[in-house]
Amino acid sequence: MILQSLDTAFAPLAALLGLLVGSFLNVVIHRMPKMMHAQWAAQAAEFEGRTLAPQAPYNLWQPPSQCPVCGTRVGALHNIPVVSYLLLRGKCAHCAARISPRYPIVEALTAALSFWVAYHFGLSVAGVSALVLTWFLIGLSFIDADTTLLPDSMTLPLLWLGLLVNINATFAPLRDSVIGACCGYLSLWLVYWGFKLTTGREGMGYGDFKLLAALGAWLGWKMLLPVVLLSSLTGAIVGIGLILLARRGRNIPIPFGPYLAIAGFFASLYGTPIAERLGIG
């Protein structure tokens, strides 16, 4: 009876947790690229024998969230996911500077997708694991959309988590998971070098290889073809739309990570029937 009640409450609780995770993902999306650039600067200085001036701690925990305009620290009451944005009408409580609507969008999206995943899988190892995968994919998608970067500090842990999750074949047998990680990386690596040798230009980044490798580790090698096909189709439609409607130049790079993430999300939920329709046994 208790387990049945927990299973019934799992989806609403996952949505509530998704709001909180979405708030944290906003921090990750904003700070992770800056942390990467700081790390690269430190590595370059070390290689060149230079000494950088001491910097204040800057990571996912420090400094506390603050208004980018007036620098006022955001208090707990002004940091309630979605609700605070609506009550403040999208403005800083101190200086009335406009707050990007992307913050509540990420929070609401994370909550909605968390509910969807929890409702689909129920209270189970697969359900909890799929929530973690979904949260990683949301963070990676927005970072890549902003910067065309996919941080190793997120893609590589995601890959290892996928292998660990499948020790007991949660989404795929461990053998399929290992093969999926290898084939996911190598397939895009071959596409990258084929395109570069043919055109002299880079068609994608190494982060895309690692993200597909991570999805292969989570979902197994049989899901790679559906993921690549769906992500390519989505990317082509969006890319053509941007060129036609937004007059985006053809030479401006379009990040591929968000489309891989979208395809990976749907494959995690509905990959088996999709693979069966494609004749992948």
Describe the structure.
The protein is an all-alpha fold. Helix content is 68%, strand content 0%. It contains nine helices and no strands. The chain has helices at residues 2-48, 83-87, 102-121, 125-147, 152-165, 174-199, 206-219, 224-245, 257-277. The chain is globular, with a radius of gyration of 21 Å. The mean pLDDT is 88.
Q: What's the topology here?
A:
Layout: H1 2-48, H2 83-87, H3 102-121, H4 125-147, H5 152-165, H6 174-199, H7 206-219, H8 224-245, H9 257-277
Tally of alpha and pi helices: 9
Q: Specify the biggest β-sheet.
A: none
Query: Which regions have little confidence, pLDDT < 50, spanning 5+ residues?
Result: none
Nearest-angstrom radius of gyration? Answer: 21 Å
Helix/strand class: mainly alpha
Report a brief summary of the structure:
The chain is mainly alpha-helical.
For this entry, give a set of tags.
281 residues; mainly alpha; globular
